[in-house]
From TrEMBL:
Organism: Selaginella moellendorffii (Spikemoss)
EC numbers for this chain: 1.2.1.9
Pfam families xrefs: Aldedh (PF00171)
Reaction catalysed by this enzyme: D-glyceraldehyde 3-phosphate + NADP(+) + H2O = (2R)-3-phosphoglycerate + NADPH + 2 H(+)
Name of the protein this chain belongs to: NADP-dependent glyceraldehyde-3-phosphate dehydrogenase
Domain (Aldehyde dehydrogenase): residue spans on this chain: 1-111
């Protein structure tokens, strides 16, 4: 599939509602940043989001309010490094990828609770 930019695709289209696994970007213009963030959340899928702005207030607003597994500022949301907790929310998944999370998946967590271990002899 050739890379594709879909500009102002209708909100009720499958391209807008379904998760796209390919070199496709949906591009929308906006007049109100908060409305744009609200519209970005209007989906069942939410792996990663990309926000392009030089305004740090908008960047932090997007990070706090976009319902996604990650928000990339001024870069493609396909960017990932091994130490990053990469993953989605909603119908895009509930787990994270990355070294820490892979190790957690290979370990069995166990707890030891100790009471009255000072002077008492039980054996």
């Amino acid at each position: 599939m050739e890379p594709m930019i879909l500009e102002d695709a209708p909100f009720d289209t499958d391209r807008r509602k379904e998760e796209i696994f390919g070199p496709v970007i949906l591009l929308y213009s906006y007049n109100d940043f908060k409305e744009a963030v609200m519209e970005a959340n209007n989906t069942h899928h939410s792996l990663q989001a990309g926000v392009f702005t030089c305004d740090l207030n908008k960047a932090f607003y997007a990070f706090q309010h976009i319902e996604a597994g990650g928000v990339c500022l001024n870069d493609s949301p396909s960017m990932c490094v091994d130490s990053q907790p990469y993953g989605g929310i909603k119908d895009s998944g509930i787990q994270r990828e990355g070294v820490k999370y892979a190790m957690d998946n290979m370990l069995e967590t166990k707890v030891l609770v100790m009471c009255n271990v000072g002077n008492a002899s039980y054996f």
